[in-house]
Amino acid sequence: MKAVVSRRAGAGTEVLEIADVDAPARPGPGQVTIEVTSFPVHPGDLQAVAAARPDSAGPVIAGAEATGVVVEAGPGVALTAGMRVTTFLIDGAWRQQITVDADRVVAVPDLLSDQVAAQMLINPVTVLMLRRAAQQHVSVGFDGVVLNNAAASAVGRLFTAGSAHHQIATISIVRSDDRADQLKQLFPEVPVISTQAPDWPDRIRAAAGGRPIPVALDPIGGVGSGDLLSLLSPGGSLVVYGLMAPEAIPLHAATLVHHDLALRGLNIGRWPLAPVEQRRSDLASATAIAQGLSAHFDVAAWYPLEEIRAAAAHVDRPGKVGTVLVTMDGTSR
């Protein structure tokens, strides 16, 4: 049985490989076994591959999200063999078959395409977590404006679309004029600021038009996070939910103290710790997002399993739009 593995920490373009692994155990109570048909390659997947870890006895299977078909269900599970499903936040999702707890599995609606099904959980649930974090500030949804950094990313675009639906004002921030032009076509009512312009902070303040900026959402970190902090209104929060920048965030305590600012991290890996009612609601909402905003689930490219290193390289390609997907059947699309 094939799986994507790494035998040491390092860049996905260098250490990911295809290996034969044992078949998963048969499902026990509350579990299902899934025949994986495709999976997305998220930046966080590659960060996990690159992270230092203790030597292990064997290869580590990569990936946290996959979609496929149920082949067997254990006792007490409503899902049945033959159902299209997707699963996420599991260890070692990138393999031909996986056995997982059914509470991490969602049935795929019949009319949902494979390309949407393959990416319908991690990104939408991240968007839901970000919206909850933003709405902790009472002005969000009223006169407050949320800064959405890396707004051309898959999560960034979903956040913009969802915010418009919930009447949350946002300003999109991107790193190039080309990206800005793309977003203006998608969301003509949402201000877009490119950091290519030397005066981009002033342009953001002008776009806010005197309204408070209580929250900035940032998947990058590093020096740019300091710039975002400087744009927040007193009492505002910078929410960092990614690690794309290699450098640390330059921050003096005085920045937080004098302006009553907060810096917090948000990690989807902690989502399983949420109350069960919240998790059920999030999975239902993620499915609704996938159905209602399917036009924003773009695919950057499909790769066959054997080209996993090329897929990893594509994730960081400048100008990429959408999510990189990998098929298990050895074909590209």
From TrEMBL:
Transmembrane feature ranges: none
Pfam family, one: ADH_zinc_N
Sample GO molecular function, one term: oxidoreductase activity, acting on NAD(P)H
Keyword hit for Oxidoreductase: yes
NADP keyword on record: yes
Keywords, alphabetical: NADP, Oxidoreductase
InterPro entries recorded: ADH-like_C (IPR013149), ADH-like_N (IPR013154), ER (IPR020843), GroES-like_sf (IPR011032), NAD(P)-bd_dom_sf (IPR036291)
Residue ranges annotated for the Enoyl reductase (ER) domain, each copy included: 12-326
Protein name, as recorded: Dehydrogenase
Source lineage: Bacteria, Bacillati, Actinomycetota, Actinomycetes, Mycobacteriales
